[in-house]
Each structure stands twice: as C-alpha cells, then as structure tokens.
Amino acid sequence: MKVMAQMSMVMNLDKCIGCHTCSVTCKQAWTNRTGMEYVWFNNVETRPGLGYPRTYEDQDTWQGGWVRTKRGKLKLRAGGRAKKLATIFANPKLPSIHDYYEPWTYEYDMLLSAPQGEHTPVAKPKSLLTGDDMSIQWSANWDDDLGGSTATMQDDPILKHMSEHVAEELEQTFMFYLPRICEHCLNPSCVASCPSGAMYKRVEDGIVLVDQDQCRGWRMCVTGCPYKKVYFNHKTGKAEKCTLCYPRIEVGLPTVCSETCVGRLRYLGLVLYDADKVGAAAAIEDEHDLLAAQRSVFLDPDDPEVVAAARREGIPDDWITAAQRSPIWKLIHDYEVALPLHPEYRTLPMVWYIPPLSPVVDVVASSGNDGEDGRTLFAAISQLRIPLEYLAGLFTAGDTAPVERVLRRLAAMRSGMREVNLGREFPEETATAVGMTADQVQEMYRLLAIAKYEERYVIPTAHTEVARELEEMACSLDFEGGPGMGGAGPFGSSSGTPTPVAVENFHALAARQTADSPYGPTTPGRVNLLNWDGNGRPSGLFPPGDIGGGAAGEGGDGADEEGRP
Amino acid sequence: MGLTDASADKIILWVVVPYVTFAVLVVGSVWRYRYDKFGWTTRSSELYEKRLLRWGSPLFHFGLLFVVLGHFLGLVVPKSWTEAVGVSEAQYHFVATWMGSLAALVAVAGLLILIYRRRATGPVFLATTKTDKLMYVFLAGSLLSGAWATVQTQVIAAGHGYDYRETISPWFRSLWYLQPEPALMAGVPAAFQVHITVAMLLFALWPFTRLVHAFSAPVQYPFRPYVVYRSREASVSSRAPRPGWDPTNTPPR
Ligand code: HEM
Ligand code: SF4
Ligand code: SF4
Asked: Given 3.40.50.460, 3.40.30.10, 1.20.950.20, 3.30.200.20, which CATH number is that of B3-223?
C-alpha cells in the first residue's frame, strides 16, 4: 500500500444556476492574457449541448484518454510513444482554434469617436487573431441555456451514444449545467502524452501542473486529455492548464471558482488513495466497473492501518485529520452520491459530481404532480429514461443503476426534509428505502444545503518547512510577466531573476506588456482598456508629452477650447 | 598543408568563421538555455492552421532528417572507411546523389509549403516574428544552395561528379582535430562555398531563434514511465531562491 493524498472537488449540480461567475473569476485570475483569449480553465456547459471545445467528448474523433488493449494493458488512445514521436511534426488530433472559437473583441472606441452622422455608430466585432472584421460563429458557451440547440444538439456526443428513441423524444427537453475544470486525474493521460516530461502530478496533493520552463510546445498533452483541459498558449508556445489555484490551496484557501461560486455548490477536500492500485483500476475490463474500481482505490482515512501507512509515507498529521474531515470523502464514500465525469476515459478523474435531480423534479412538477412527494419522485426516476440515460452517459459510462441510486437518495432527502419542515419527524422508511438512516440523510442534507465555508472547504495548508521549495519549484503559470504569484519585485523585473535573451522573446514580452492585440482602436492615441492586461504602459493610456510642470494647466478643457472657434 | 600555405581571406573564411560559428552556437545555446528556458519552444502554430501544416511540417522535417543523416555520412565518415567496407566511389556517388536529391526535394517541398503558409495564413503571419523571418532566409538559403550544389556538381555533372569527400570532408574533419586545413577548400566549386558559408551563418543564428527546439528532440520519451510525479522537495527550477527565502542552514565554520 502506497498512501497518497489527492486534493479533490465535488460539485452539486442541482444547485448550479449557470451564472458563469466561476468562469469569469477564473478567467480574470488566470487567463486574461494575449495567447489565452480563447481559454477557459473553468467553463460551464449547458447539457445537452456540444461542450467546449465543441464535441470534445467524442473520443472517436479526438482520441483523448486511455484505452484497454486486448492484453489488458492501458494504452493512450491517440497512440503509443512511437506513434506520438512519429506524428510530432504535425499532430493529427489537435483541435484547431475553430473547435474552441476564434476570440474577438469589439471596436468599442468607434462608439465614442465616430464622426457625427445619420446612423448610430456600431462596435463591429474584430478578431483577436487577425485584427480583421469577423462574423462570430461560435464561442465557449454558444448553446448556453439550449440557445440554438435545435440546430446543434443532435451533435452532442452523449446523445449520439444513447439509444435510438431519444431523438424523437427530444422535444421534452431537459437541461442542466455542467461546470468543468481540470480533473487532476489519478492516472492523467495528459502527463503520459507529454514527450518532454514537463507535465507532472504533485506527490503531495496530486495537483497536475505544466512546468513552463520545460514545456517545449510539442502540444501532445492537448490531444492526450480527454476533457480537453490542457490549452496551448499560442503566444508563448507553451501548454497551460487549470492549476487548481495551487497558490491558494497551499495556504488553505479554496480555488477561485469555488470561492466565488454563487450556488455554493463546490466542495474541496482530500482523498487518500492507494497509488499501487491505480494502474489496475484504470485497466479494468468492463467500463461499467470503472466507478467501483476507482472507489476501491480510495483508502478510508479513519482506518488505523491506513493512518499508520500514511504516516509511514510522511503524510503530516494535520493532513490526515483533514482527510478524515473531508467533505469529498463523505460525498463519495459515506453518502455515495458523487460520481466521476466520464470514468470510461480511464484517467480516474478527481472532480466528482452529484448528478442533478432537477430534470426529474421539473417533469413531475410540470405534469401537475407533487415534485416533493417521495413516491411520485421514485416512480418518475425509474420512468424518465432519457435524463437517466443521459446522466449515465456522463457519469457512469452508460450504466444507469448507480445514477438511479444517487437520484433516489436525493429524492428521499427532498421528500423527507419536507416532512421535517412541516414539523414532523424525518420518515425512517423513506431513508431505509434508499439504504440510509434518517440521521444520515439529514447529515447529508446539512452538508449539501447549509454547510458553511469551513465545512465545504477542508484544505490543510502546505507545510512551511517546505515553503521555500514550493516557491522555488518551477510552477505552472509563474513566469515573468505571467499571472502567477511571482512577478516583478520592488527593483523591477530584471533584478535578481534571469532575463529572457532571445530576441523573439524579448519582443514578445515587450509587446505583451503593451497589451498588444492584432486589433487596436482605430483612433490613434486611444487604448482599448478592455484588452489591456494591466501590464506596461500602452501608448495612449496617459496623456502624451511632458506630464510634470505645466500639465495641470493644460488639462482636457484647455485643449478642447483651443480647438473651438 | 596547414595554415601557413593559405591566404588570409581563406583563413578567415574557412578557419576563423567556422570556429566563431561554433563558439556562438555553443555559448549562445548554453546562455539561452540558462536564461530563457521559457522561450525554448517550437512555438507551434498548428492551433491557427492545420491543413497546410499537416503536409508541410512532416515533409520538411522528415526530409531534413535524411539530409542531416546524409551530411553525417558524407562529412564525418572518411572515404577510406566506406571503401574499406567495400563501397566503391561509384556506388557511393550513386546512392548519395539520388537519396540526397530525394531527401532535399522532400525537404524543399515542405519548406516551400511552410513559407507559403507563413505568409498566406493571416494568424500565422501575424505570429511570425522578425527573427522567424531572418531564420527562414538563412534556412531557405542553406537548403536551396545545398540542393543547387548537388544538382550542379553531382546530378548534371559528367562522370562521378565533384568528389567533395576529397576536399570538403577532410577540411570539415580537420576543424575538429584542431588542425584546420583551409587550403583544401581552395578549389571547391562556388556552389559549395556559398552553401557552407550560408549554413555557418544559420548555425550562428540558431541559438537565438526557434530552431533551438531541435536540440530538445524528446528522445527520452520512450524510456520514461508514463506518469511523472514530482515532489515539492525535488525542485527542478533554475530559478534562484527569492531574496528572503534562503534556507535556514548553520553558517559554515
Ligand atoms: C528531430 C527534431 C525536431 C523535432 C521533433 C521538431 C519538431 C517541430 C515541431 C513540433 C514544430 C512545430 C510545428 C507546428 O505545430 O507549428 C516544428 C517547427 C519547425 N521546425 Fe522543427 N523539429 C525538429 C528539428 C528541426 C530542425 C533540425 C529544423 C531546421 C533546421 C527545424 C525547423 C523547424 C522550423 C523552421 C519550424 C517552423 C515551421 C513553421 O511553422 O513555419 N526543426 N518543429
Ligand atoms: S483532466 Fe486534467 S489531469 Fe486529467 S488528463 Fe485532462 S488535463 Fe490531465
Ligand atoms: S459560479 Fe457556481 S452556480 Fe454559477 S455557474 Fe459556476 S458553478 Fe454554477
């Protein structure tokens, strides 16, 4: 037994309102830079829908993740090491920018500077890749709230895999939101795909990172990840990915997406697992057994043997305590309501989801029945095959039984808690019907509905003994001018740290610092603040010429008056 | 023969320039690796455009791999060795000329596609730096002048063509023995002289362009475990500790 700790997340999909706050705050924190305009480390997809990048779940096309060979071995779906090297000069399975979307901005300054005329000025969309006018065709959430889905939904890879009858019944549409980040997998195929060994899984907390100094831009990881959560920065030529906000996690703070989640539906905590069992679990033959196999890799933090083994591995005591208090462990193991996203990719993902009951409740309620009545809900769960099969396509490789069990538990909680709210006891038989006790269901309710910050995020801090190594570690996004925690010190960026010497790099950095984008405002001397990343002093941001001395006297008014007759 | 019999301009061109090139290549690469690991990348442009790259890049790179192999056989392996294993001059010439021409053709075709793509695809052109352009001038210059030298002195020439293994190859090796013999280059056809000069300039430019990616060809990939783990302790950064984060050590006595 080799005990390792994994920082993991659970999202309760019933509570997601699809507000995209998580995506926006994540973007502001990590990817509002040239080269990363199209990148969303956190994105929220409407399901059914195509996802981002479009149809990424269709592994027949994109070839992400692992497959089991006939001899029971795991192989990268896109091909083994030899094939990777043979196709390194042009990666045949790399999504192009149009599979994500072509990033754009609007010609905002036209709204202010257009000459007086008959027509109201418009802000035309401009491509951030070419600077030309463009017609917007797609984006990271183009089919948000099923918008335009009648035209695109049939391409949803999950629907395609479901049985025939679905297509006809699509009119009874259901929908829910699926927020996604990198899964920080136990068996990460992105890491396995990286030819230079620049990607790695951190031993201490399992966070998967890209070493920006070692990445050579072979862009094989993008193909390797079945969730398409490694992105290629087209400006720097390096791969970047969700870091689980490790600078925050290390000091005990939740990720930005969790911190800002409006629905408070994200949970963060440790899971202990047996690293020796990972390979065998990922290679289990039947896809439907993958969920159970992944569960069997986890170790019970309350088991004294596990605790002893964890100590032997050097896991600190406060981490073991944190693992015992982990909300993730409760949701995955005690209540068994969380499920992994696409276990069939065999990467053993570690961001799990509580599937939404709301599609079922909606149907029951809209048919005039009582959406909080246990018996009605149970009946509806087993009758409404489409939502069930769809959820199974996402979370259990198509096996509806585990999804049905989870939904029944959620339904039991819902109907039982109504009794409690009406001043009655939680009906024990409702709980036993789903294999729990009334107390357990109420505890689960507490965790799902009213748990406070400290209960939702149980994050042990990194140990200060190793803080210097952490700081020194080549970390994912912390490069000069990057958004990491580093950056220029009080003596400027060239003091103490190595300076880039390549001419092209020098120019790239210098240009980046003036918020370069192929599209600049049409009026000289103006700056598009929406595209400015906060670095450097773009020309036009400050008044030209001498700022000191008489500047005050030559303020805007004075200049205006000069121009008037 | 030796340095004494050669004129000053020959010494500069065939002794000084090669050594300076070598020094710039080595020192420049070490310098860049030390200070600019972040800039050490292919800067792949596949995200922007796939259709042309799919042909151009493999054609160019595979062609070039064979061209490099050919240069190794022609320049590094002495004529006496190939003859010792029973390869006659005629056989060598035949194989070298035709395989070499084929490889060159493939590489040049790929290069033309890549250059066309650089110019014609909007986002790719915008992502092309000045260094890229300069690099392409010398890369295309080396490749085309080399291809021309082969065609002129080997393919269309009578008989066995020009035997560079009597002149250029010994000169090349003499540089490595530190006994340079510039006089060997005196009678070499102009096409070869141009090719070698442009190539030396390309090598001097190498460390400062994206071509450094060739030095980090991932040859170790087949031999490592699939999943890489790194501990916080086993740090791999070249970054010096930030001021104030020095570890607590007992002072040296
Ligand atoms: C065997 C080692 C090499 C490998 C694995 C390799 C791999 C690559 C890769 C992955 C790209 C990026 C293609 C893209 O997606 O845009 C690239 C581009 C390039 N490589 Fe190499 N390369 C190697 C050797 C070389 C050599 C020896 C040269 C030249 C002397 C070279 C010249 C170039 C050029 C000029 C480009 C830019 C193509 C373009 O986008 O216009 N490479 N290489
Ligand atoms: S989800 Fe994250 S850890 Fe898993 S394969 Fe993709 S990038 Fe790697
Ligand atoms: S912030 Fe929370 S509720 Fe809003 S979309 Fe993100 S996960 Fe859903």
From this structure: 1.20.950.20
